[in-house]
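Entry details:
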Amino acid sequence: MEAFTARGLRASRRSPLCTVTKNPFFLSRLQSTTTKARPQVASGRQSAQTSTTSSLTWPEYLAIRRNKRTWQTVATIPCALLGLAGGATYFGNLDTDPLKPIMGIDPFFFYGFCTLGCVGVGALVGPTIGTSIWRYRNRRILSLIDNKDVEFFSRVAKNRVDASLQSPTHPVPDYYGEKIGSLHQYRQWLRDQAKYKRKALLPEK
């Protein structure tokens, strides 16, 4: 048994495969081929990444728009509360004389209206802050989003109802397409526009 294993070991050492693998020329060629294959794999990964970042599909774009609206809503609530707190703190600490109206209005009502005005200012500033945060989070693809915005709003302007057909009591539903956040909502928006146009052009008798 020992003799058999010894013969097998000698035979394996003398085999052509072992002779080739010990050849320095073969090892240098093998190393060169592996080093050439690695950059190809890396370049393939880079091309895949550039292909994914160079284009933006409609579902991805609409999901990003929905995320933008979420950020605007989330930022509006705390800004409105801050406006309420600031207005109540400032106007609540002012000295008031009930016998001296301000601009012909009772001071308590006047300061109450001013506090509500602060809430409104906070609600108006909130979407701007939310949009700024959203743009910072998506700063790497802002150029793609801006290009898609141009195409999206051109589609909205092409398919929406003419503003001259609307009435003060029955405005056009989502005239600017702000509530569109998916392909399903876009198709529903198209159906709503077509339904409104039919009713406006062919009123029921």
In short: Residues 58-145 form one domain. Residues 66 and 181 are 5 Å apart (CA to CA). Helices lie at 2-14, 16-21, 24-54, 58-92, 107-137, 142-159, 183-201.
